# Entry
Amino acid sequence: MTTSNRIAMSPMLMYMAEEDGIARDLHLVHYGARILGGVGLVMTEVIAVTPEGRISSSDLGLWEDAQIAGLARIVDFAHEHGAVMGAQLAHAGRKSKSQERGLAPSAVAYEGLPVPKELSGSEIDSTVAAYGEAAARAVSAGFDCIELHVAHGYLLHEFLSPLTNQRSDDYGGSMENRARIVRRVVAEIRGAVPDSVPLFVRLSAEDLADGGLTREESTWLASQLASEGVDLFDVSSGNVVPGYAAPVYPGYQANYALDLKAQLGVKTAAMGSISSPELAEYLVSSRSADLVFIGRALLRDPNWALKAARHAGVEPHLAIPAYARATGPYERGF
Ligand SMILES: Cc1cc2nc3c(=O)[nH]c(=O)nc-3n(C[C@H](O)[C@H](O)[C@H](O)COP(=O)(O)O)c2cc1C
# Structure
């Protein structure tokens, strides 16, 4: 997959879909603004693989074919204007607020939410299958890559973390067991999409809580997944328990991407409070990461990428040439 630059829009849930999970005009305009704004890779917000796997009842979905066309319209628009698009696939697990009780590895509640129902072995099997089916639908919609959400305390991360996984079957206990469902989902997606479609995994590198997932464990998992068809790791941290228990500063999570790249030689994306073009440039030019994921800065300003180019002295391609008339000597940057 070739991108026009190394700027990626970080997945950000907009809570603007309806009960049917279908992308609508608002989604086209929201993503379209960042596409016209020069972002190389536009990653969608979480897309639920099952209705029970929604974070909220306003999430997008790919649990049925009727949801393909709305997303395909956005992907087509991206392709017409030089961007590529990724679909972030997720299941909310115990953090689902779209129903009375979430589904989770164990009946351990997230603060303020009801005690979830523990998934049975056959429910695990059908959930794994749902990821593969959603990935196949994403490819039908034309997406260039898939990102599997294994971070931030949602279902797959809940299996990895001893704080949320208290199972005594093949899916709990040792790290190998806790990682089993993630590896099954990766194999399922790999079997459902062509080899040419890159698969990214968003990991929480550590839980930042006593007794939680450690960096050694997540590094071991990444090394397994890298040989099982995952092409890039987009590395975050925390959020399996409420609150973020580490200092936050510009680029505060980039060290996770850098370390994983140094240890395993894998492709990585850095993320977390990357708002200045200088920091983004440093991260990619120093080969600390292959991509930078920009989140809130792109919510504040859909034209962040165009401005970053001009700031660096590069005249960006403009989808609408008349926009060039708005780039005089006093309108060049940040
Ligand atoms: C409104 C909002 C919604 C988010 N939704 C998601 C999401 O759907 N999937 C995900 O992996 N991360 C989500 N995140 C986290 C962002 O992708 C990003 O990792 C985080 O905001 C830190 O990066 P930033 O400082 O550049 O915003 C969300 C963040 C925000 C602010």
Notes: The chain has one domain: 7-326. The chain has a mean pLDDT of 96.
